[in-house]
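seq as requested:
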Amino acid sequence: MIEVVQAFDRAPIAELPTDDASALEAKLSTAHARFQDRAGWLQPHQRMSVLHRLAGLVEQQREAFAMRISREGGKPYTDALVETDRAIDGIRNAADLLRARGGVEIPMGLSTASEHRRAWTIKEPIGVVAAISAFNHPLNLIVHQIAPAIATGCPVIVKPAMATPLSCLELVRLVHEAGMPEGWVQTLLPESRALSEAFATDPRVAFLSFIGSAKVGWRLRSILAPGTRCALEHGGVAPVIVDRSADLDALIEPMTKGGYYHAGQVCVSVQRIYVHAALKQDFIERFAARLKQLRVGDPTRADTDVGPLIKPEEAQRVESWIDEAVTAGAHRIGGGRLSETTLRPTILVDPPRDAKVSAHEIFGPVTCVYGYNEIDEALAAANYLPVAFQASIFTRELEIAFDAAERLDASTVMVNDHSAFRTDWMPFAGRRQSGYGVGGIPYTAHEMTSEKMIVFKRHERLG
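struct tokens:
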């Protein structure tokens, strides 16, 4: 059994049974059998109908999902409502893909050898999908794994984060209520870490979708069964550059949201802020004043801006990183513990380059501010880590914006917006140690697809 507790006060919510090795075998066997039975594959219109009905069912439970997200994951209720709305839109986005999804014609007759032939491609489901998700978006991340699998016709087994399984379980229940036949979408709550590894590396799995730590993701990739494809979504240490021409009045609010949304527990959360020396002090004063206004506490309250971290151990870790940086010379603004899992927002000014807060993903309500004199200096600092995900620059100079957009080592560069901006239909991917493959509803659907070419030879015309 696993006990699910509220992130904020650790009050029990539910006890759930776990799956043992025999349960895992039964689920993998069922999923594999569904895929092997081509006559039983659902037609596109059937999959579209399931997705549209699912979106409607989730919409009916919008407030209930938001409260569930707040309780199990600690996300403030207003942000949890936004997550639910995104999930609903993502499900519809997956259904819409089927209207435009198709193969292409491959030219023939371009050489003597290719005469009298026609060729085209069709898209087929890749096979059984093993999905391993993270705690920080317990509904929308599951949608990003389940909805593309339904759209492409892949059987999927999803393992939610063990701290936040309730949103996933309810979503899968609604998938079946929406008309999905049994065996196509299943959940897994493994009783051990070894069973999770056995799940991901089983040779019947055609595609692994992993959202979580780089340490675990890269290890799983190294031991996947031959032929298994994967997509890994890890974290970053997102840099934001504030150019000398930037409008401070316009950037304080997005910087606050990008740095402290969900208490910083976002893989592209604003973490390293490089501010031109001429603006640095003014920026720090305005930024600190805005942080003092943030309401920190119970995430189920509609007026809360910053909630807890997922576990007490995480709060302790973040505090230790802050203390280490201060001991090494950083100036701390704000901070302090509110409860076992809740920390007040912190700004660290000029932590050393090798401090954990400068070199590793904090995943907590902390941002670091550094000064610079030349834009080249800021770009070099932004790019020096082995992780690279999303980045941003605030500037009113078009030339600087274009230059930084090309030179920042990131999969996405925001101009005059924070690094954590995302829509669910855009590509979302880490570079280098930050990930492998591409996320986002349409891109995940592509990853879960195999393309087959058909070449049709006709008889040569006579006479």
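The longest strand covers residues 117-125.
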